[in-house]
């Protein structure tokens, strides 16, 4: 087998094109060299047809609380004998141990920017302000009325852990991994954007987790008094 763990035959996958707001179930059926042959994603009973060369995002589900995120490209669609996609060898494979990244309700003002792909720096004129809904060592959930982000979009995000100290502003590259839409009482769209941190320094991640633990301890002490 050309590709090692976490990729194996019958491995459960979730696949999302960059311009679709949802992951769809799939699984690995076979390998073709380093490329994956996967069950054609279905939205209900409707097969998902995309042009060849479409970039896609994927998640390989390994066990409870653990998954691998990756990027790939659709190479080929075959309908016989089974409807299959062939996708390029996964790139930028990242292990995510979700069970280690407990989510804590945190409502703070957030700034995020689109990223210059050449320099990796924020593009200042693209600034968008939002409010966090929860935070973990793996990412943050935002509430926004701005529909500009798509799945797979990379952003530069700034999250204040302490309103009184600029040293506690977390700055990181993140990628949009889930976008849910709802309507408020006035019928206006609200966007709940899940951002996953990318290549975050473990010192910064530990600072986030320490801050969340302190918040939880404070809330627990309040409930006891």
Report on the architecture of this protein.
The chain is mainly beta and 225 residues long. It folds into two domains: 12-99, Pnp Oxidase, Chain A; 101-203, Beta Barrel (Thrombin, subunit H), CATH 2.40.10.220. Helix content is 10%, strand content 49%. It contains one helix and 16 strands. It has a six-stranded antiparallel barrel. It has a six-stranded antiparallel β-barrel with strand order 11-12-13-16-15-14. β7 (66-78) and β8 form a beta hairpin. The radius of gyration is 19 Å and the shape is globular. The relative contact order is 0.13.
Q: List the helices and strands in order.
A: EEEEEEEEEEEEEEEEH
Structural class of the helix and strand makeup? Answer: mainly beta
Straight-line N-to-C gap: 59 Å
CATH superfamily of the largest domain: predicted glycosyltransferase like domains
Relative helix content: 10-25%
CATH top level assignment of the largest domain: Mainly Beta
> Which fold name is given in CATH as the topology of the largest domain?
Thrombin, subunit H
Structure annotation, total helices: 1
Major sheet: arrangement of strands: 1-2-3-8-7-6
Shape-level CATH architecture of the largest domain: Beta Barrel
Q: What is the arithmetic mean of pLDDT? A: 81
Strand content: over 45%
């Amino acid at each position: 087998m050309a590709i090692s763990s976490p990729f194996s035959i019958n491995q459960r996958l979730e696949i999302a094109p960059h311009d679709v707001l949802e992951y769809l179930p799939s699984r690995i059926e076979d390998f073709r060299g380093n490329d994956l042959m996967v069950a054609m994603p279905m939205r209900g009973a409707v097969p998902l047809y995309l042009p060849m060369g479409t970039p896609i995002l994927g998640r390989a589900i390994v066990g409870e609380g653990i998954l691998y995120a990756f990027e790939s490209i659709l190479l080929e669609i075959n309908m016989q004998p089974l409807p299959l996609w062939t996708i390029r060898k996964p790139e930028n494979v990242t292990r995510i141990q979700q069970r280690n990244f407990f989510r804590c309700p945190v409502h703070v003002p957030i700034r995020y920017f689109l990223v210059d792909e050449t320099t990796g720096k924020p593009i200042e004129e693209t600034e968008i302000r939002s409010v966090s809904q929860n935070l973990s060592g793996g990412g943050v959930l935002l509430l926004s009325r701005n529909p500009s982000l798509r799945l797979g979009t990379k952003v530069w995000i700034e999250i204040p852990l302490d309103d009184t100290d600029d040293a506690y502003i977390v700055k990181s590259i993140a990628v949009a991994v889930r976008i849910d839409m709802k309507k408020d009482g006035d019928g206006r769209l609200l966007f709940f954007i899940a951002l996953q941190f990318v290549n975050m320094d473990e010192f910064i991640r530990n600072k986030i987790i320490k801050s969340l633990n302190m918040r939880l301890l404070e809330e627990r002490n309040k409930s006891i008094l």
